[in-house]
Design a protein that fits this description.
- The radius of gyration is 18 Å and the shape is globular.
- The chain has three helices and six strands, in the order E-E-E-H-E-H-H-E-E.
- The mean pLDDT is 91.
- The strands form two sheets. The protein has a four-stranded mixed β-sheet with strand order 1-6-4-5, with helices on one face. A two-stranded antiparallel ribbon has the order 2-3.
- The chain has a single domain, classed as 60s Ribosomal Protein L30, Chain: A, CATH 3.30.1330.70.
- It is α+β, with helices and mostly antiparallel strands and 156 residues long.
Length: 156
């Protein structure tokens, strides 16, 4: 019988961790603009700005080291700003982790924006991420904590 990957102890090969400051932004759907007889596709400005912030944070964290070239595990800890319109009591409950962050942005869309922003910097391509751990909660300081760890697995 084979063991699950989650049950096996994994040796730590390479690891990088960093925080993307500010309110997390979900990957926006591509936009289309007509230019004469042609249609041009482009990324929404808010998404492009956030991906550039991811690139900057990732570049600083990598400190000139080469990108990971094999399978990796990606951990995202998404912290959303607690709405100022909430009562003090509800804000305290959210800060204590008693209120689930079920509002937008969706965690999987934030994941897409972060993965695209790390291409060519943390890893060669985001297809290298084969294991994920994602959490989305409210916090007093919004941002995304990113941890990438190389896995002791062969690439296909």
């Amino acid at each position: 019988m084979t063991q699950s990957l989650f049950e096996q102890p994994k040796p730590l090969l390479r690891r990088v961790a960093f925080t993307i400051p500010g309110q997390p932004v979900a990957k926006g759907r591509p936009k289309f603009a007509r230019q004469g007889a042609f249609v041009r596709t482009y990324t929404p400005e808010k998404t492009a700005s956030y991906e550039n912030l991811v690139k900057l944070s990732a570049t600083q964290a990598m400190s000139g080291r080469p990108p990971f070239d094999g399978p990796v595990e990606l951990t995202l800890e998404i912290r959303l700003q607690i709405p100022a319109s909430w009562s003090k009591k509800r804000q305290q409950l959210a800060e204590a982790g008693q209120v689930a962050a079920t509002k937008k942005p969706d965690a999987d869309n934030v994941l897409k924006a972060v993965k695209d922003g790390m291409n060519g910097i943390v890893w060669i391509d985001d297809a290298q991420a084969v294991e994920y751990r994602i959490s989305k909660r409210y916090g007093t300081t919004p941002g995304v904590r990113v941890i990438v760890e190389q896995l002791p697995l062969q690439a296909a």
